[in-house]
Amino acid sequence: MPLTVLDPTPALIVVDLQKGVGGPRLPFYSTVVENSALLAARFRAHGLPVVLVNVAGGAPGRTDDKQRRDGTRSPRAENWTELLDELGAAEGDIRITKRTWGAFHGTGLAEALGARGVTQVVVTGVATSVGVESTARAAHEHGLHVVLAVDAMTDPRAEAHRNSLARIFPRLGETASTADVLAMLEARAVRAGEA
Per the confidence metrics, is the pTM higher than 0.70? Predict the structure, then answer.
């Protein structure tokens, strides 16, 4: 469903745009980073919450993923968890470090958003079918209106990205382009007397 409205207090959630995740191997990665940074800057300019999420580990359960089966992973660079500089992290941003796919479990994010009166979230980041989808699912389960900025997310697997966009996201919220969200943000500001 296309974006219909921005609530009075939406928040932006940027998932896993950090130095150790993603990079040029992901389709349209530079566009995803650029669009996420643009959204973050405009949300901040309007005094709206920006949530910057990084991942620093994983859930302990066994999986079929060979990398996880024996609990070992390849060594990570020292700056692996650092957020990308392009996001322009600001003092007022909500910072979340997660150890699962989604940004809500065990992080206090629901409480932080609730304390700010947030009723809607716009979600961007990587990977579409993992961190972004898991965060969107949890946001939906917490009763938030969910907007998925589809040109501000990517996945290493094109078929997984397409599946999330076509089959999962329509059941969780509304989809929009970065330009759609920005236009709605500006229109909302005009109606509210901001500028």
Answer: yes
Q: 10-192 belongs to which CATH class?
A: alpha beta
Does residue 186 sit in helix, strand or coil?
A: helix
Domain boundaries, given as residue ranges, for the chain: 10-192
Judged on CB neighbours under 10 Å (0-12, 13-18, 19+), 160 is middle
Of 79, 93, 77, 76, residue with least CA distance to 37? 93
Per-residue pLDDT reduced to its tens digit, 78-113 = 776 899 999 999 999 999 999 999 999 999 999 999
Letter for the amino acid at 180? D
Q: Could you write out the three-class secondary structure of 82-111?
A: CECHHHCCCCCCEEEEECCCCCCCCCCHHH
pLDDT single digits (tens) 16-61: 999 888 777 888 999 999 999 999 999 999 999 999 999 987 666 6
CA-based torsion, 74, 77, 78, 83: positive or negative:
negative
- 149 close to 181: Cβ distance less than 8 angstroms: yes
Torsion angles phi and psi, residue 157, rounded to 5: -110, 110
Residue 2 DSSP class: B
